[in-house]
From TrEMBL:
<dbReference type="Pfam" id="PF00041">
    <property type="entry name" value="fn3"/>
</dbReference>
<dbReference type="InterPro" id="IPR013783">
    <property type="entry name" value="Ig-like_fold"/>
</dbReference>
<dbReference type="InterPro" id="IPR036116">
    <property type="entry name" value="FN3_sf"/>
</dbReference>
<feature type="domain" description="Fibronectin type-III">
    <location>
        <begin position="214"/>
        <end position="285"/>
    </location>
</feature>
<dbReference type="InterPro" id="IPR003961">
    <property type="entry name" value="FN3_dom"/>
</dbReference>
<protein>
    <submittedName>
        <fullName>Fibronectin type III domain-containing protein</fullName>
    </submittedName>
</protein>
Length: 300
């Protein structure tokens, strides 16, 4: 189902926090409030959806309790849509040693200073659009980052000419999106940390604009089966070249779009909401994309 706005008194409250895989452990607003370091009165619209939870956190920013989700092997994603997590710094290792964590989106974080903050957590996507500083060893021991989005980051480690092992373990095929000043910050050369990544085959993009692709507005479904659907839409206008499309199911990333426009790994006789997000080569993502509801076919 689509995410809707709800009205309490004169204020509109909507779901802004999505946490995957933790419902067995975090089964109430009280339990979540303790992990986020807030009063339970700040947790609204708490809901369990299978193994995932979602809610609206109100009342401004918050800071995780120490080691809040560290070591939780069930955690699959943490999406903070409104950038409410303390915008100054993460330094108490709230996430780490999470072998099934695939996505982190924290819109407001400006600095990550503690080494091993996300250690041994093979996340596919790390999305920190306001991050300005990365301390040493932050991603030490990581092996499976696919996308690291830090377009405002101007400080990496403690030297521009010598690596500080901030991103040492990013694998070949990873994509890192950084501030354009990082291309020449080392006496006209790239930051040493980035030069090291480039030399081993990591793709580094210097984000010189934040212009998003236009919205996907004409999404339609051509075929519905028990476990997959086929979709169609028109490629939107984009100032930068388009790179790929993301499929989001019920508000959560599901897959990159395959060449044949099929969406797989659905359950029979189940209601879903789907939208497509266009992503350009600088990792700018389209917004206000149309979404549609559908139900997969029943088992014969």
């Amino acid at each position: 189902m689509s995410i809707k706005k709800y009205v309490f008194g004169k204020s509109k409250i909507r779901v802004n926090t999505f946490i995957g895989g933790v419902s067995a452990r975090v089964d109430s607003a009280n339990a979540l409030a303790g992990l986020l370091g807030v009063g339970v009165e700040r947790i609204k619209l708490f809901r369990i959806i299978g193994s995932d939870i979602e809610c609206a956190v109100i009342g401004g920013s918050y800071r995780f309790s120490s080691y809040a989700f560290s070591g939780d092997s069930n955690l699959t994603h943490y999406i903070d849509e409104d950038g409410l997590i303390d915008g100054l710094v993460i330094n108490n290792t709230p996430i780490g040693d999470n072998p099934n964590l695939t996505r982190i989106k924290m819109q407001g974080i400006r600095a990550i200073t503690a080494g091993y903050s996300f250690r041994h957590t093979p996340t596919l996507e790390l999305h920190f659009p306001k991050l300005e500083m990365l301390g040493i060893y932050v991603f030490h021991g990581r092996t499976n980052i696919t996308y690291l989005y830090i377009p405002l980051c101007i400080t990496i480690g403690n030297s521009v000419s010598v690596t500080s092992e901030v991103m040492q373990f990013l694998p070949v095929g990873s994509k890192v999106y950084v501030h354009p000043s990082m291309a020449t910050i080392n006496s006209g050369l790239p930051h040493a940390e980035l030069a090291s990544l480039i030399s081993k085959g990591v793709y580094v993009a210097y984000v010189d604009n934040l212009i998003k692709p236009s919205s996907v507005t004409d999404l339609t479904i051509l075929e519905i089966s028990r476990e997959y659907i086929q979709i169609h839409f028109t490629a939107p206008y984009s100032k930068n070249d388009l790179d790929f499309y993301e499929v989001h199911i019920n508000g959560i990333y599901h897959q990159q779009l395959s060449y044949d426009n099929y969406v797989y790994n659905l359950k029979p006789n189940t209601k879903y909401n789907i939208k497509i997000i266009a992503v350009d080569v600088l990792y700018n993502k389209s917004t206000n994309n149309n979404s549609i509801n559908f139900k997969t076919a029943d088992i014969l």
